[in-house]
Amino acid sequence: YDTANHWFIFNDDLKVEGDLTVTGLINGVDITALAEANAPLKVSSGAGLSVHVTAGNYRINGTITNFTGSSATLAANAESFLFFTGSGGLQVRAGAFPTNVSFIALAKVTTNASGVASVTDERVMLNDDRQTSVLSVLHPEFKDSSYVGDGTDNTGQLSVSNDNADKKNFYAWKSTRPDFQDYDILIRVTLPKQFARWDAVAPLSMQYRSSGVAADTKADVSVFDTAGNAVTLNGGANLSSSPWAIAGMTFSGTPVWTPGQTFLVKIHVASRNNGEMHIGDLELRYAELEKE
User: Fold this and answer.
1) Among candidate residues 103, 106, 217, 101, the one with its CA nearest the CA of residue 158
2) 51: CB partners within 8 A, 6+ apart
3) N or C: which end of the chain has fewer CB within 10 A?
4) What is the pLDDT of residues 168-202, one digit of tens each?
5) 43 with 109, same domain?
6) Positive/negative CA dihedral, 183, 187, 188, 189
């Protein structure tokens, strides 16, 4: 023991059995702060079904957030995914990471009946996922489209014309029958391989117009994701308007959007009493990762 400097001197290997608590510095380094700095946004198990996320900074869509750390309680006997979103902060979701919003992955956590069984680190350090906003406009006659009757009440004529005043192409569905006759316009759209997410405000919009009595025409839009499942749409139902109008639609639920794969848009048009249902441009808004 060095009485002058008040420290122990060891000239051989030192073995410590049990916990060692250091309240000062080691070679001038605060190891408590060092451990925290080396593990930003790290998920670790806590007591019971709880997990803790350490402090750190992250950026989503150009906005930097200073996260101060937090804890979350998970469901028992489940597989939970922890991530950050730009608008919601720390999120816990069962099943998988999201596919329709920008996010920062943290961890996949598996629990049993009473506690945390495993924590899989899903953080990706040193990434550069800059995104570009894309507006893709489809003009009638739509590319990669087909036209199908459902086998019932499909008497009418579907054509493509041009509005000289507005300088736009449009589909026209017309039936002389007194009861509604309908037809489907099916459009296959392939997502780019750099697809990142849909626009949060108006991922899909469509121009439409009723020629004649508006009550004698209508249109409905359906979307099927890249897994072939029907997507829950907000907007796009029972569309009818005498002047040109735009229907803005958003997606809800948990649809699957796999980059490089194809999804389907179905436009169901109906007419009676010589009314014409007109369908104009279809617009897709999304973000994609910048190419190298």
Assistant:
1) 217
2) 43, 44, 45, 71, 72, 74, 82, 107, 109, 116, 119
3) C
4) 999 999 999 999 999 999 999 999 998 988 998 89
5) yes
6) negative
